[in-house]
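Cross-check.
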Amino acid sequence: MPTIGNAPSGEDTSLDGTEKVPTTGNKFILISKIRDYIAGYYNTLVATLTNKTLTTPAIGDFTNAQHDHSDTANGGTAVGGGGGTDVFENLTTSETDTSLVAAPDGAGGLEFRAETGGAGTLLKSYWSVDAPPVSPTSQDDEFDDGSLDGKWTEYDPNSVLTVTESGTYKHLILSCVTRTGFNPVGIAQTIPAGDFTIYGLLKFRSTITDYTIAGLAMYEDITDVSKDIIIFGASPRNAETPLGVLYYTASTTFSSQTLAFPADFLPTSLYLRIRRNSTNYFYDISSDGISWIGNAAAVNPAFTPTKFGVALDNANTGITITASFPFFRYIASDVGINGILAGQVAGIYQ
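Predicted model, tokenized:
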């Protein structure tokens, strides 16, 4: 500290850094001492703060601090689903970090799925039956991987069918070249036991001069060309009955049109649905997959179907008929005429 003491009598009071300054009570402080003290304190501070290494503080391990409610075994609540099924079990890790919405599962219940957002402002949310179900069945096919799944068998007795699964357009494409007479062709898979609903979207691309049809199909026996087939779909062979069910008593024998939907024009895209309830079969059409028109009375085949799928027939001379199907889906119940089909919530963004 600076020296403090009694000032000698007659001391010079100039401030040149060496003289003494009188203070109250005839005390004095040496200016040189103050200067040395401040300089030393400053150097001490600089030495303390210069080039210091910061040490990362230790943080405790919280790995096991979370409380897992991902399923009922860990204390979670099972929402929906008969018998306590955990409706969140099919969500991916990224989906569990987003908002969830409840939506029909296509079988009379509810399922939860991630509400995914697009770029911009959401203008409207809506139910899209074109979107793949969150929990597809083994019979479903989105026709989006570039090759036909092994569950399908081609039905093509006279080798007039070309089957293409487009990896670009994500459609199944059936092309049937010209030939004489009736000859339905298509793809088929085994029908499970019990009630069912099958549905799909037909897209017709063709010019016609004669009979043709494409749509959903049921087969009696694809290994025997003498067995029966039903095709339900678009049949623009005349203006009065462009939609209906056509019945074949063999692969080359057309029998009758057992159900007709009169219309003034043929839509180029059409949702089709076949429902089986016990031994009764019902056929519905829709322009959007949400609103449906069906025949109130059952139209039952004269055979027991063992396969279902999609099919095409072409009686046009010199013309190749093409039909495409973006998807084929199955539900293990009769959803009824008012049933909402499985799909996902979609949005329109600005």
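Residues 14 and 21 are 8 Å apart (CA to CA). The radius of gyration is 41 Å. Passed to J.P. for a second look.
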